Amino acid sequence: MPWLLLFAAIVAEVVATSLLKSTAGFTRPGPSVLVVLAYGAAFVLLSHCLKRMPVGVVYAVWSGLGVALITLVAWIFLGQSLDAPALAGLALIVGGVVVINVFSKTAAE
User: Fold this and answer.
1) H or E stretch at 30
2) Which has the closest alpha carbon to 16: 68, 62, 58, 70?
3) Chain segment 19-40, per-residue pLDDT in tens
4) What is the pTM of this model?
5) Residue 25: Cβ-neighbour burial (10 angstroms; 0-12, 13-18, 19+)
6) Angle 2-20/55-77 helices, nearest 10 degrees?
């Protein structure tokens, strides 16, 4: 269950970050409210993960997958270009998260 909450927290954070530009510096009410709600949901979900998971593991997965997902969202939906070094870096980030989850005893509940 905490892994599902963590994934939901990451998705909420990626949604909020994806919408951040559309707030125009928080001058547009609609997108601004969505960003605040999504970030709020992300942190509430993250806090519940920390009840049962080590903070280092949670933060590593949160930041690693968050960076990878927001980069993919920016590439697919916002027209950001990705070159070979960017793709290699993303692969390393995702690989690190996989290593933590598959091989680390620290990640076990």
Assistant:
1) helix 29-49
2) 70
3) 999 999 999 999 999 999 999 9
4) 0.84
5) exposed
6) 40
